[in-house]
Amino acid sequence: MNSSAIDHCAPTGFFARRRRKRLHSIMRRRPELPEYSKRAIVFAPHQDDEVLGCGGTIIKKIAHGADVDIVFMTNGRRSHAGMMEVSDLIALRETEALNAARVLGVAADRVSIFDLPDGKLNEHRDEGTEQVRDILARLCPEEVYVPSRYDGPDDHLATYQFVMDALNTLKQTPRIVEYAVWFWHHWPWVRPDKRIVRSPIRAVANAVLRPMRMYREFNVCVDISSERDQKLAALAAHESQVQRLMPNCEWPILSDVSDGAWVAACTQDIEIFSVRNV
Ligand SMILES: [Zn+2]
């Protein structure tokens, strides 16, 4: 979705459209990620974050011959808790994660799923950091993808912190690439969803601070126009997140968030990153 196509579900109004167009064009002029062929690990809190945050860039890296591993920090047991058996839900999310990885070009033996509880990663700091440390020590990546430190939900922030802590103990200094997922959930990209941002003051603060952060912190932009269809196909492989598998119940899907504007923001023709150790 390019900046004009996003307009059908994002906030309307002259000022919102103009602001969005301006931010998109500023980001588009950011330097591109150098050396796509670097060996990488993508750490994703949940099954779908790897696609939403950096799916297009993974596709580009694979095309450039890079080895890419994907590590899911949690087992996905919470997304539809109470709507199906927990063990079935965990198995389904695993199958979907492997299918999505295959669409991105990542083989099943390069996908790891930690059995840590979805939504409670923070309560497993030592265990999580140790597992991240083991995988970093084994693979010695040249590049590490993590959710932005400004991204939002606790599992995303915990993932960032576990990876940073593990890198510090290992004294490894790969290129750090922070990607945006929930970071996009602010005006002018979306009308904040009250189920996610409950306080109106927080929504206003995000609308002011996040564009400033976007401008200041996100220093790299990858044009994924050519990879976008493949990214959308990978997202579609996370069926439980994009289709109501049980139509007669309140099965939540990604496009429920802000009437589809958030997922549209995550699947634009660009992916933005805050990159260190370039
Ligand atoms: Zn997530």
Chart the SSEs and their pairings.
Blueprint: H1 14-28, E1 40-44, H2 49-63, E2 68-74, H3 86-104, E3 111-116, H4 125-139, E4 143-147, H5 154-170, E5 175-179, H6 200-217, E6 220-223, H7 228-237, H8 239-242, H9 261-266, E7 270-276
Parallel strand pairs: 1-2, 1-4, 2-3, 4-5
Antiparallel strand pairs: 5-7, 6-7
The chain binds zinc ion.
Zinc ion binds at residues 45-46, 49, 156.
Describe this structure in words.
43% of the residues lie in helices and 14% in strands. With 278 residues, the chain is an alpha/beta fold. Helix 2 links the parallel strand 1 and strand 2. The longest helix has 19 residues. The two termini are 28 Å apart. The mean pLDDT is 92. The structure holds zinc ion.
Summarize the structure.
By secondary structure, the chain is α/β, with parallel strands linked by helices. It has a domain of 192 residues: LmbE-like (Rossmann fold), CATH 3.40.50.10320.
